[in-house]
Amino acid sequence: MIYISNIFNLPLLIIIWLIEAYLFVAACRLIVAKIPSARQTYFYKNLKLLTDFVPEALSRKLLKWKDKSIPSWLAWFIVILSGFILRQALIVMVTM
Predict the structure, then answer these.
(1) Residues 26, 49: contact at Cβ < 8 Å?
(2) pLDDT tens, 28-58?
(3) Share of the chain above pLDDT 90, in %
(4) pTM of this structure
(5) Torsions phi, psi of 92, nearest 5?
(6) Please, what is the Cα angle at 79 between 35 and 33, to 5 degrees?
(7) How is the chain split into domains, by residue range?
(8) Which residue, 16, 24, 42, 86, is the most exposed by fewest CB within 10 angstroms?
(9) Cα(53)–Cα(31) distance, rounded to whole angstroms?
(10) Which residues contact 12 (CB under 8 A, 6 or more apart)?
(11) In whole angstroms, what separates CA 66 from the centre of its chain?
């Protein structure tokens, strides 16, 4: 639980909640992707639409920057890792 003492930190707290929600939904999407029968469900397709736009945009940026193709897991790794780092940095800013 994060306690804030300043009302001006409320927007940062909302951003932290949004990052946590995205990381949770992305984790659900990656877990459901490992189940072959679940990949055809409406739930999985909606999770994919909700979460895949960030790694796909990052992949396009990396392909412009680098001439070689990149592994498909690299964009997901960068997105998840940067989400955790950004979340932690914002938590430190809010609690100070």
Answers:
(1) no
(2) 998 998 888 888 888 888 998 999 899 988 8
(3) 34
(4) 0.84
(5) -65, -40
(6) 5
(7) 25-95
(8) 42
(9) 17
(10) 90, 93, 94
(11) 23
Q: Using DSSP, state whether 27 is helix, strand or coil.
A: helix
Taking each helix axis as running N to C, give the angle between helix 10-32 and helix 72-95, from 0 to 180 degrees, rounded to the nearest 10: 150
Contacts (Cβ under 8 Å, ≥6 apart) of 80: 23, 26
Residues in the chain: 96
Q: Which two tokens stand for residue 60?
A: 């396009």
* Tokens, residue 19: 């990052």
Token pair for 52: 């895949």
One-letter amino acid at 48 equals: K
Residue 34, amino acid: K
83-96 b/e (C-beta count within 10 Å ≥ 16 → b):
beeebeebeeebee
* Cα 2 from Cα 88, distance rounded (Å): 12
